[in-house]
Structure formats: C-alpha cells, structure tokens
Design goal:
The protein is about 55% helix and about 20% strand. The chain has helices at about 1-25, 30-65, 80-100, 115-125, 135-145, 160-165, 185-195, 210-225, 245-255, 265, 270-280, 290-295, 305-320, 340-345, and strands spanning about 70-75, 105-110, 130-135, 150-155, 175-180, 200-210, 230-235, 255-260, 285, 295-300, 330, 335-340, 355. The longest helix has about 40 residues, at about 30-65. It is elongated, with a radius of gyration of 33 Å.
C-alpha cells in the first residue's frame, strides 16, 4: 500500500509541471497538455486498480488466515475388534480428507471396560478437545455423562433411545449429541435365519446382558422368530468370563444360535466358534466381523462406511456448517447378505447365490 501512495504522488507532480508549461504556449503545447492529461488519467486509473487489487488480496489473506483453525478430536473406542476398528478408521479418513492437517486425533481404547471409557472421556473434557467420537454404546454413555458442552458423535451404536434412556425417541437426540447407527433390519435378519434353516425348531439368542443394545436386538428378533413358529430362548452372559459356559449351554439345547451386534462376542468369536462348529450348530450373526469369526451368515453393514458418515458429520460440526443439536441420527444406506464359506463348508450348509462370500 505504501508503494501505491508514492506512485500517485509522482504522477500528480508530473501533471502539475506539464500544466504550468501548457499555460505559456498554444497549439502543439495544448495538444501535448491534453495528451499528458489523458495519460495522467490512465495512470491514476491503473494506480486505483492496483490499489484495489492489493486490498482484495489483503482481504483474501485475512479470510484464509481466519479459516486456519485447528481441531483436536478425542476418540474413545470401547474395545478392539474388526467392526469398531473399521468404524474408527473410516471416521479418521473422512475427517482428515475434509480438514487435512487442521485436525489431530487423541485416540484411546478402553479395552472393553466401561469404567475406563469414563476415565478416557474425563481426560478429553479436561484437555478441552473440540469434539468427542464415542465408538460403541458404553463409550457413548460415558460421554453423555461426562459433558453436555463438547459435541459428541456416537458410532456403532444400535439404538440411541435405548442407549441414552430417551423415551419415545424421534431420531434426533438434541443437545450436544448425534451420530450414526449400525442398526440392521432385525426382521430381515430373522427372515434370513428362517430362509436358511426352515426346519429348525429351537433358536438360542446369545448376547451380553451388560450391553443394552444387545438386549434390544434379541428382544426384537425373538418376537419376529416366534411369529414364524420358532421356540426361542435367551442365553445371556455378563462378560467374557462366562461366555464359554453360556455358549456351551446354548449349543447343547438349540438348533441354531443368533448373535446380535454384540461387542463382547465380537472380541471373543473364537470361543463361540470352538464350541458351536464342533457341535454342528450354525450361528447367524448380526454383523460381518462376528460372522467372519464364528457365523455362517449375516445381513450386515460396512462399519468403515459408517465411520466415514460419522466423520463427515464431524467436519460439518467443527466448521460451523451444522448445529449438532439439530442433526438427526444417520443410518447405514445399504445392507449386504454375506456368508462364511469355511464354516458353511464344514457344516455342509448350502448358501443361496445372492449371498456374498466374506473374504477369509
């Protein structure tokens, strides 16, 4: 801006000198003065345009600087298993794609302990993170208890009304919480079991009683299966310590076992497989990771894609594009019938052609 002022002064001084010279003569001198005046006007116009351009550039720099915010996102994942890992990765990839180096992550794993979830959330609150991603229901519940100010996005949560104790849930939590749901069509999972095992009589519903959304799923599936003529029995375990005993009881009493999107089973599929496969008992699973470990078939979502959706929500919240209080829970756009070729082969189960094999 200083260079522009000097240029204006020089042009004006030159114009004054030429004007004085023009007053002492006529003819060619007048023509020269007129030409000089035109050149002066052109010069002034160029200077004005240059000054305006510099001002615009300065304004653009200011806007760029204003958008140079950085964000810290805390990730609390309940435990390590394929589905939750995929959701976390999808979340990080989508948010990094949207914000680049402006976002950093504080990623922590609670190793299956809900009390550790609370400790992790409290550390996020103390450190003043800009957003919390809670991966799985206990992580979301801990986040809800830990802060009502920092935005919280859940993922891998089946039913938010159940998880958060909201009666007559209408799809939007409000306040500082939203997220994505991994709820698959439970009636269609029940129909899958019926299509594959129409002659079965007894179905065992194997789940962790400490997970509220697991209870919700088996309640819905039980009602659907009983409507198809099956006899259903709950086989609830409190944690991984009694999973083996309960799974053995289910395998000894049932023709088929159904397992929902249960985090405890997901991280202990080998226990279930080592019991059910030798006994010849097929397992219908609520999601692909469980099916890959101990099931024969599933109607499942992509947890990576679910995480991507959550990451895109986070980007809108952090940049101020969306208000989390007004963001409804988002659901997976599609579901795929998949099967475990190894276990199906071992149990002699023929799978329809419209199922996709899970890569081993």
């Amino acid at each position: 801006m200083r260079k522009s002022s000097k240029l204006i002064a020089s042009v004006l001084a030159g114009a004054m000198v030429l004007s004085l010279a023009a007053c002492g003569g006529s003819g060619a001198g007048e023509t020269t003065a007129a030409t000089t005046a035109a050149e002066t006007t052109a010069a002034e116009t160029t200077v004005a345009e240059t000054t305006a351009a510099e001002t615009t550039a300065a304004e653009e720099t200011t806007v760029a600087e204003a958008t140079g915010d950085t964000y810290v996102v805390g990730i609390c994942q309940l435990m390590q298993h394929d589905a939750l890992d995929a959701a976390t990765q999808g979340f990080k990839d989508a948010l990094t794609e949207a914000l680049g180096d402006a976002v950093t992550f504080d990623e922590q794993n609670a190793q299956g302990d809900s009390n550790t979830c609370a400790t992790i959330i409290n550390s996020f609150v103390s450190n003043g993170v800009d957003l919390i991603m809670a991966n799985a229901t206990p992580a979301l519940q801990a986040a809800q208890a830990g802060t009502n100010e920092i935005p919280i996005l859940g993922t891998s949560v089946t039913e938010y009304g159940v998880a958060l104790g909201i009666e007559d849930f209408d799809g939007t939590v409000g306040g500082n919480i939203s997220g994505t749901s991994d709820l698959a069509p439970l009636d269609e999972q029940a129909a899958m079991l019926h299509d594959l095992f129409p002659d079965a009589k007894n179905v065992g519903l194997l789940y962790c009683s400490a997970e509220a959304n697991s209870q919700y799923q088996v309640d819905v599936v039980k009602e659907a299966l009983e409507g198809m003529g099956y006899t259903c029995e709950f086989y609830a375990f409190s944690d991984s310590n009694d999973l083996s005993t309960v799974a053995t009881n289910a395998a000894n009493s049932c023709d088929v076992i159904y397992v929902p999107t249960d985090n405890t089973v997901a991280s202990n599929t080998a226990i279930v497989d080592n019991i059910c496969r030798p006994a010849g008992i097929p397992v219908i699973a609520g999601e692909e990771g469980i099916c890959a470990g101990c099931g024969v078939a599933t109607l499942s979502i992509s947890y990576y894609d679910l995480g991507v959706g959550t990451g895109r929500m986070a980007a809108k919240i952090l940049t101020g594009e969306s208000d989390i209080a007004e963001m409804p829970i988002e659901y997976a756009p599609q579901f795929t019938k998949k099967y475990n070729p190894t276990i199906c082969s071992d149990l002699g189960i023929e799978i329809p052609s419209d199922y996709v094999a899970i890569e081993q």
